[in-house]
């Protein structure tokens, strides 16, 4: 009887330990999932707050640029290309891409400028944009050189200072690397400093993992794009990019944009 009792007790102890291990494993998985979900929501909230702030600053910057542009046009007798003071409504462009340029090599000079500017870190967005678009002769060149500067920056090779402010180029690039910012917000901000209307378009894309018939019911296939107003029409400029995307991915995005 004593031997049988000891064997039963041993079996119960092993079973209890197994149940305990399973419970701890389940609770750990549940806790990690809750932590991941909370972190994701915090990042989304921070990105949304940043996007709203950039939207406000972009409108203010465009207003100031339009005021200065109007003053310049009043003092100058020469007729300059008119750029709308407010964002025009969306409509199909009157020109095709081939009507604007036929070979990406036409942008070789502004591309080289963007590459040179990317070798140094500018302290303010004003300094950065002035260096990028100061010698551009058209709205298309302005958008191109901003786009090219973004694709040149390799976030994986940049060492960021933790004290970098979010209202500086380096601070925003740091945010992109760690998931609190996005390329689309950066492109929109730089366009506003260059006097270009730019919007962020949100939607879905059939990226890796998508299977025919899958419904877009969660955030797995969420994506964003930029549309910038150049050459008298709205044109899609920059596709989605993951935080910290390597330079090889940037090269692929650049080649796709050129095609």
From TrEMBL:
Which regions are flagged for Pro residues bias?
85-95
Domain (Transglutaminase-like): give its ranges: 173-240
Q: Record's InterPro entries?
A: Papain-like_cys_pep_sf, Transglut-like_Superfamily_Mod, Transglutaminase-like
Task: Tell me the segments the record calls region Disordered.
Answer: 1-21, 73-99
* SUPFAM superfamilies (UniProt xref): Cysteine proteinases
Protein name as annotated: Transglutaminase-like domain-containing protein
Species of origin: Penaeus vannamei
């Amino acid at each position: 009887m004593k031997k049988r009792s000891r064997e039963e007790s041993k079996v119960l102890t092993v079973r209890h330990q197994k149940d305990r291990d399973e419970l701890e494993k389940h609770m750990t998985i549940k806790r990690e999932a809750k932590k991941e979900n909370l972190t994701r929501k915090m990042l989304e909230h921070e990105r949304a707050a940043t996007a709203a702030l950039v939207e406000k600053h972009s409108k203010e910057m465009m207003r100031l640029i339009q005021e200065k542009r109007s003053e310049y046009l009043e003092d100058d007798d020469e007729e300059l290309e008119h750029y709308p003071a407010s964002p025009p409504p969306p409509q199909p462009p009157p020109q095709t891409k081939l009507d604007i340029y036929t070979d990406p090599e036409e942008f070789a000079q502004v591309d080289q400028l963007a590459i040179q500017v990317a070798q140094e870190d500018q302290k303010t967005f004003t300094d950065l944009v002035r260096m990028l678009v100061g010698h551009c002769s058209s709205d298309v060149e302005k958008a191109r050189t901003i786009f090219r500067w973004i694709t040149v920056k390799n976030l994986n090779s940049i060492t960021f200072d933790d004290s970098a402010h979010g209202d500086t180029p380096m601070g925003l690039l740091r945010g992109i690397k760690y998931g609190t910012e996005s390329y689309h917000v950066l492109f929109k901000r730089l366009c506003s400093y260059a006097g270009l209307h730019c919007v962020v378009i949100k939607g879905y894309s059939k990226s890796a993992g998508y299977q025919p018939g899958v419904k877009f019911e969660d955030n797995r296939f969420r994506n964003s794009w930029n549309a910038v107003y150049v050459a008298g029409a709205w044109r899609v400029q920059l596709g989605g990019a993951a935080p910290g995307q390597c330079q090889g991915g940037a090269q692929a995005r650049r080649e796709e944009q050129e095609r």
